[in-house]
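Format notes (please read before filing issues)

Several people have asked whether sequences and structure tokens are stored in separate files. They are not. Every record keeps both together, in the order shown below: the sequence lines, then the token lines. Line labels are part of the format and must not be stripped during preprocessing.
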Amino acid sequence: MKPKNNPENFDKCVCTNCSLYIDCNKNKAERIFCARTKSECVMDGKKMCICPACPVYSENNLSGAYFCIIEAK
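Then the structure lines:
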């Protein structure tokens, strides 16, 4: 189950610190991919993903990574 898309989770989100996060994401105000949907931007899956280091990830017992590319289930 996806985490809630709420201000508390938004404040904990580490997406903006991720090497995959680019100007396109910033311009579209995209964050907290694990609670929303994958990015509309073209993301580079060869870069290091930090989803497992996110508090939202651990607090919601998520598994997997690259939620900006592969939508969380």
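For reference, the curators noted about this record: The chain has one domain: 7-59. The radius of gyration is 11 Å.
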